[in-house]
Write a structure and sequence with these properties.
Chain lengths: 133, 354
């Protein structure tokens, strides 16, 4: 390998290393539900990073964890879905079970996560997630 | 297990998948989670170490089913259809102006694993199940049997299960009630016979599923051998009695005792007794306690049975020396903890009821 070629390879390695160093690692956030309350009600995550939410339901009743903006929640307040599970931002957690979902938030901003089962939001099952740029 | 005694009353709760427009004396929850709770009337008599608890479920029309969950102080030895006029006669005793109406009524004769099932029986359109288990186990049983529990149910079930793991689940089948020919307003009284040595009346369960500001109203009748000591003290200063009114407290009249004794299953009523009526008129967030009763004459109702300690959020009234010692303990032990917590961020606390 010529000197120029060795320099090119070295440059690529350095670039790859720098890129890997700049990219923030995937993160995990665990939220436990007990007595119909989220134990964590303020979460901050970086934009562009996969975030895995581990949702632990310690109650003998079902709960939901739906995350989105105000328009999203307005739609779900009057929604008729019996359960959720196919969409990462919409999770039903059966009684005494754990579910996890992974979401990458591309844009900075503030979102809310809420349980939209009847009366649960009014009872206080609301949290805020801040996506930082 | 602590063994409360006179227990009683009421209850509340959860409802089957397709809750129908039916109402009962307990708290009921509709399919959308809303609670329809009529003024509750229940009776708890205590004599010879046995509590007799009578409540009623009223058919209000419609189809489908609803349910109710009632905490009990101990395992019932018998569950049967109650007499036809016990509750109405008690109302009459403390509201004499309604005597004519009563006469008419009398004439008409009207995961954890699930909780362990101790007893199952059917009374008219009611399917009754006596359960034993912790809050999670009872909640899971209820969920798996179609009861729709409100968001405050997990905390409330734990509140009771910590003291007594016995619950009564009642599922009312309105369709069957219609088939049985029950008319609107017909009630199905249930009489539980509960051997126990320490009576209490569950009140907090009445607030289940209610928003903090909603009002809970109930009439609780107690029939005991002697004048009972109560905790909280109904009618006492705010903070000691919040929401409880001592509406009647007197030796039971001979006519009342005779009328009660003549009803089905009420032959146990003694020749002499003391009648107490406690009116509950409180906001749901106020009603975070139960009614402890000491019918022994010792004048020492249990703070634990009232839900004040060690599981309740409030402290019972104490003698001054105990108060001073308690404050000292709080300052020495609690202050550092409070300071520590104050330095941490904390999310909003959920409010009771919904």
């Amino acid at each position: 390998m010529s000197h120029r070629s060795r320099l090119a390879v070295a440059a690529l390695l350095v670039a790859a290393t720098v890129t890997a160093g700049c990219a923030r690692s995937p993160m995990t956030v665990t939220i436990t539900i007990h007595h119909s309350a989220f134990d964590v009600t303020e979460v901050s995550v970086p934009a562009g990073v996969p975030v895995t939410f581990v949702l632990v339901n310690e109650d003998p009743i079902d709960h939901e964890w739906l995350i989105g903006d105000e328009a999203f929640h307005d739609a779900h307040r009057t929604g008729t879905h019996a359960s959720h599970g196919d969409v990462p931002a919409e999770v039903t957690i059966p009684a005494l079970e754990t579910r996890q979902t992974t979401i990458t938030f591309d844009e900075p901003g503030r979102l809310a996560y809420i349980c939209h089962l009847p009366a649960h939001e009014a009872y206080g099952m609301v949290g805020t997630l801040t996506v930082e740029g | 297990m602590r063994r409360p005694l006179l227990s009683l009353a009421v209850a509340a709760t959860a409802i089957l998948v397709t809750a129908a427009p039916t109402l009962a004396c307990g708290g009921l929850i509709g399919p959308n989670g809303a609670v329809n709770l009529l003024r509750t009337t229940t009776f708890a008599g205590y004599h010879d170490g046995v509590e007799h608890y009578v409540t009623s479920f009223e058919f209000a029309g419609g189809g489908g089913a609803f349910g109710s969950i009632t905490p009990l102080p101990d395992i019932p030895s018998n569950v049967e259809r109650g007499g036809d006029w016990t509750l109405q006669r008690l109302v009459l005793e403390t509201a004499p102006e309604q005597r004519l109406a009563f006469a008419a009524a009398e004439t008409s004769g009207a995961a954890l694993d699930e909780a362990e099932v101790l007893l199952e029986t059917t009374v008219d359109a009611l399917d009754i199940t006596i359960l034993r288990g912790g809050g999670d186990e009872v909640g899971l049983w209820a969920k798996n049997h179609g009861f729709r529990l409100p968001p405050d149910a997990p905390e409330v079930l734990d509140f009771y299960a910590d003291r007594s793991p016995i619950f009564m689940a009642a599922a009312f089948d309105a369709d069957r009630a219609a088939e049985l020919g029950q008319a609107l307003g017909d009630g199905t009284p249930i009489h539980l016979t509960i051997p126990t040595d320490n009576p209490w009346v569950p009140l907090r369960i009445l607030a289940l599923g209610k928003s903090a500001a909603e009002t809970v109203q109930a009439d609780v009748y107690l029939l005991t051998d002697d004048r009972p000591a109560l905790l909280p003290k109904a009618g006492a200063a705010f903070g000691e009695s919040a929401g409880l009114i001592l509406d009647h407290s007197a030796a039971a009249t001979d006519s009342l005792l005779a009328d009660l004794r003549s009803d089905a299953g009420m032959e146990w009523v003694p020749e002499e007794a003391w009648l107490t009526k406690v009116v509950v008129d409180a906001s749901a967030d106020e009603l975070n306690f139960d009614l402890a009763i000491d019918a022994s004459g010792a004048e020492k109702p249990s703070p634990v049975d009232a839900g004040f300690a060690p599981f309740g959020p409030m402290s019972p009234p104490r003698a001054p020396i105990a108060l001073f010692l308690g404050l000292a303990a709080v300052l020495v032990i609690g202050l550092p903890i409070m300071v520590d917590r104050a330095t941490r961020s904390s999310g909003p606390r959920p409010w009771a009821g919904a």
